[in-house]
Give the backbone structure.
Amino acid sequence: AKMMTAGSVGNADPRLRPRQTWLRGARATGYNGPVAPASNDFKREVELAGEAATAALAAAIARQAVRGDVIALSGELGSGKTAFVRAFLRACGIVGEVPSPTFTLVQTYEAARGSIWHFDLYRLTRPEDALELGLEDALAEGITLIEWPERLGSLEPRHRLEIHLTQGPSADSRYARICADTAWSKRLCGIADD
């Protein structure tokens, strides 16, 4: 997938069209608690033509992820967060079943580069409950993927890569709004050339 700024067109892949309107972020999911602000050093929005494009974006980000990284995935139910995570894990060498942790809330995986923690916080009732799930260990020991990160409230890590997924113009397409701080911005610029 190629990333584009909201105003660029040029010779871009015709499957990827810039979207002029920025999304409202975590509040769009219906969560009304506090949300820790992320840095906006890097912003891109891209249209993903289908699940294969979502998987390609996830794989490109997986190639850049290192221990200590947090990838926060937000969006409505069915927006493609779990599909993104599955593609990310496969790109990291995880084979076999990759269940959604909707009921267990967290799954861990061992990859060549270390632990990968996948949190699905949809059913989290209090932000503090995430600490009992091992959030602090995940942040210290591995790569952390968090679905419904806004449920963490003020516990949401400040340094993170945010990916907000929404429905695109067709049933299979999605828009991905990507925001990152300086630590991610240099790594993401290389993805724009894929």
In short: Residues 51-64 form the longest helix (14 residues).
